[in-house]
Amino acid sequence: MFAHTKRVVGEETFKKIQEAKVLVCGAGGIGCELLKSLVLTGFEHIEVIDLDTVDSSNLNRQFLFRPKHVSKPKAVVARESVMALNPKAEIKAYYDNVKSQDYEVEFYKKFDIILNGLDNRSARSHVNRLAMKANIPLVESGTMGYNGQVQPIIKDETQCYDCFPKQTGQVSFAVCTIHQKPSSMTHCVHYAKEFYKRFFGEQVDQDPELETLLSYVQPGQPAETWVGKVFNGVFSEKINELKNLKKDANCRELTLEAAKKATADGTEPTPALETQRIKTVAELSDEFAKAFTDLTKRQEKIPWDKDDPLALQLTVAVANLRAWNFFIDIQSEFAIKSLAGNIIPAIATSNAVISGGIILEALKILKGEKNKVKVQSLRRFPARIKRKDCYIVPENAPQLNPKCYVCQSGTNTMYLKTNILMTTVRFVVKTFCEHELSMPHPMISLVKGEDEKLIYEDEEMTANEAKPLSTWIPSDSIQGWSILLEDMLQELTAELVITHDPTMDPSEYILTGTKPVAGEGKDEKEGDNAGDELVSDDDEVVAYHPKKNKGDEPESKKQRVA
Fold first, then answer.
1. What's the distance, Cα to Cα, between the start and end of the chain in Å?
2. pLDDT of 243
3. Which residue is catalytic, options 176, 251, 407, 433?
4. How high does pLDDT run on average in the chain?
């Protein structure tokens, strides 16, 4: 069965292939192609982790899945599919979060190599950190449309994922544009996501425009009895306020009663998929009421997720009804989901090419040829190299950052200016631990000299989340404190040296110093420079900066609510 592989790589290398223990993180676009290619190459000892389930939108490019697999765990289905290609292979599937505390350093040490096909920076950073602690080679990867990339990571020899900060490429909008003069569906989708976060998600920033809507909520009463007031408040009363404020405002109000009587503006051809159908205002108002009511029955706040059916249903309804308010064309669920999740359509061929590149780099590592590893970049438009047009551009693996606090012995001390009297423990957890530093299991202490106070531990001491930092800091000794952040699973520590500024708002802060990664995100933009690749899609995201050595320069960030 593997005669072709033996002829290409030789008997000795093929033996290493069959004996190698491989961990595959992610069973999505790249993960499916990678698992198939690994098995067909001759790898027989594979373990795969993925938290996601099969969605109908995956079927056009993730060829290990079929319609009958929808809603089933990707890792489990992928294992079953590739086992048919080589029944002798030993493949173990985990339907789980790769950031779970079940997978600590000792788990990673049992593998010879780790191959990534993950879909967010936080998970990538987490796997990178544990791979560096376990001293196991890692091959990172990503695709975005026609572009793609493979990056081998070897401790003490190449740059790790956290060596330099990642560019977010995040687009921001002025608050006044979102609330007073939206001109595109993107603005309406942003408003809809903020609406969800305010009522049902883990909202950190407080939006005054949406805060007033909370007055319609009647705790203890069934949502069915007051959801209409919320609807009218959002799509009628707020619009009337805007019309009174701005005489030239181009908008129209919509009450729930009027929405239920609305008729379709025109006849749209029926698409093959329900998610691509343009719904009427009446249908959207019904979906708003249903989704809002069902969401109120949840026992806890859940972050917005494009793969959460109720969150998506509410977002589609709010965005489209908001669009109707401002004479913007209503769009399908598929289009709204793409905008809300910052999805760039994936291409199966790109995933296949990149998965092949991952295996080529993995073979070099397994053969002991670590000095030959290359960063491979797949480009939509060819690069001119030696008078030839090249769509796959190899580059030398980038040099590591000697001050990296993940793969080297560097320290991670940052400087935080904030209002200690108003900054809560929850804000520290969500903003600094999870978003800024990608620490999923944090332990937080306040430190000043010999005085150290533990104020939060992952999944424990949750009662402290709503308390401001000043709860543990004497009013006559408010300066000179530091926040010590520790992730015992990653075996990493970061220190935030605090400067108290009483003029700052609760969600406002200035953070300076070197930070390893910009946390969770799927909203990157494409970078066309060969030395500054940045690629992403709804399945995979990876950033790489080989020609920019800015790791030693301080970075600063300021967030302010308008």
1. 64
2. 87
3. 176
4. 83
